[in-house]
């Protein structure tokens, strides 16, 4: 009985400790590609190996080092910009990442990650442009 109780309570305690209790939906939805992101209009077809799929509070992402992100919070920073905090698990580590998501137009978004550590360049973090997939 103790083993069963521990196997149920341990994941709940871990989730509580890393703050997974509440999740917001992303301000965008659907599949967005990293490929040819600067071209106009939506992408006719998207390579599933280089895309981000926003589904409510979950982001499945093949363009970054973690395949799945769970949203922790979304804070509006202006008309077309949000500050986002996500949590992720890579089978080796639990982590958090924060970034700004800016809607450039109906077919393009920009993600700018916050600087990760003091050792990095003092300038802004990595920036990605993504393009909406048509299907």
Explain what this protein looks like in three dimensions.
The model is unreliable at 4-21 and 117-123 (pLDDT under 50). The protein has one helix at residues 2-18, and strands at residues 30-33, 51-55, 58-61, 68-76, 81-89, 94-105, 108-113, 127-132. Strands 1-2-3-4-5-6-7-8 form an 8-stranded antiparallel barrel. By secondary structure, it is mainly beta. The relative contact order is 0.20. The chain is globular, with a radius of gyration of 17 Å. It has one domain (19-132): Lipocalin. 13% of the residues lie in helices and 41% in strands.
Number of strands: 8
What is the CATH topology assignment?
Answer: Lipocalin
Q: Give start-end ranges of low-pLDDT stretches.
A: 4-21, 117-123
- Give, in spatial order, the strands making up the sheet with the most strands: 1-2-3-4-5-6-7-8
Describe the secondary-structure layout.
Blueprint: H1 2-18, E1 30-33, E2 51-55, E3 58-61, E4 68-76, E5 81-89, E6 94-105, E7 108-113, E8 127-132
Offer a quick outline of the entry.
The protein is mainly beta.
Notable traits:
single chain, about 140 residues, mainly beta, Lipocalin, eight-stranded antiparallel barrel, 8 strands, about 15% helix, about 40% strand, globular
């Amino acid at each position: 009985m103790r083993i069963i109780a521990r196997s149920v309570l341990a994941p709940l305690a871990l989730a509580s400790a890393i703050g997974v209790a509440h999740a917001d939906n992303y301000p965008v939805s659907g599949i967005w590609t990293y490929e040819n992101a600067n071209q106009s209009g939506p992408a006719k077809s998207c390579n599933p190996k280089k895309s981000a799929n926003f589904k409510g509070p979950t982001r499945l992402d093949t363009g970054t080092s973690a395949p799945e992100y769970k949203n922790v919070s979304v804070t509006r920073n202006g008309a077309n910009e949000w500050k986002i905090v996500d949590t992720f698990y890579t089978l080796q580590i639990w982590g958090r990442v924060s970034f700004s998501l800016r809607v450039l137009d109906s077919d393009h978004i920009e993600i700018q990650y916050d600087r990760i550590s003091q050792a990095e360049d003092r300038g802004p973090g990595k920036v990605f442009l993504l393009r909406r997939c048509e299907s």
